[in-house]
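Example record

The entry below shows one chain as it appears in the dataset: sequence first, then structure tokens.
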Amino acid sequence: MGTARRKVGPESARMVELGHPWIIADAYTKKWSAGTAGDLVELEDPGGRFLATALLDPSERIVARILSRHTMRLDLGWVKGRLAAAVALRRDHGTLGDTDAYRLVNGEGDGMPGLTVDRYGEYLMVQLYGSAWRPHLPLVTRGLAELLSPTGIYEKSRPQKTRELEAKGEGKSYGRLLHGTPVQGRLRVRENGLAFLVSLEKGLDTGLFPDQRRNRRDLMARAAGKRVLNLFSYTGAFSVAAAVAGAARVTSVDVSPAYTDWAKENFAANRLNPARHDFIVGDCLDTLADLKRSKGRFDIIIMDPPSFSTTAKSRFTTRGGTSDLVAAALPLLDEGGLLLCSSNHQKVDIADYLKELRRGALQAGCGLQVVSLAGQPEDFPYPVTFPEGRYLKFVTCVKSGG
């Protein structure tokens, strides 16, 4: 029995021909015969011409994700071939250095759309975006085990409304062991020669975002002797990088007491005394107002907020709060100081993000000179035909005037 065929409309056909890996649900896909998430389907244009082989996900907005521009079988050989190519890309084009926490498979960027694999020391973490890969997870697990022989392989689920869930219970288990030996407690990993503790079972995220690795390394080259303010500090990775690099004092602000305690543990893991630095549990905008009243001054301010607010009472969202956040932070920054701003919101492009920074600077009555624009590092590749793959924006600005 051959692979089922699915006809797409002319607009989707054009996008496939341009190399985009997604089929978005539309009037044409609504006419498709019933199928199950994970079915392999062959896409054809309105004239019946073959376009690509894709994974079906009928209940999602992305109703199919393209695996190949050719006919194919989703078997162990295909999976191991894609995994081996991903490993080779990082070996030949990466700058990992003293790092054992990084992205091994970056979904669309490695020809496995909707699936990511991160390495944390001798463990691997698989995440599925949608249901299409679920039936094939045992195959992926076997391929990873045979190719890389990790101590263990975990999956961390990606439930809906993740930020609301995170606010309700940071200690809930979202990870499960798929293969090998379980981790006892938090796992110690290395990034840029620094030590960080990650959780493969508890919480929605592991506690370390590898896509900021290069930006943390760049901060280390700038932080010696500086007073650093890290907003939305999470588990303190940027704070640790600054402190290890010789920052005079680092102030870390996060709304979560649990993440703040985790940040202190990361300081201790790097033989840093947390008591020599400041940790503030609170809303970032409220804290900025308090620091302004107390005439706090800084040489470097970092703002790397989550995509969505983690608490119902927080006023911050990426789309609506960046300019207000910049305006509130700039009065605390010395002339010539650095403002490091980051957004991982896929739907906000760099031009719109710079407009947010401009609005904040105008509101604060001072200037910002952009000296660097960065994104995710080499282990987060994306096809040139998939602009959504360049999601991370990291802007380094110098304050002038005001």
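Notes for this example: The chain is about 30% helix and 30% strand. Residues 209-400 form a domain with the Rossmann fold fold (CATH 3.40.50.150).
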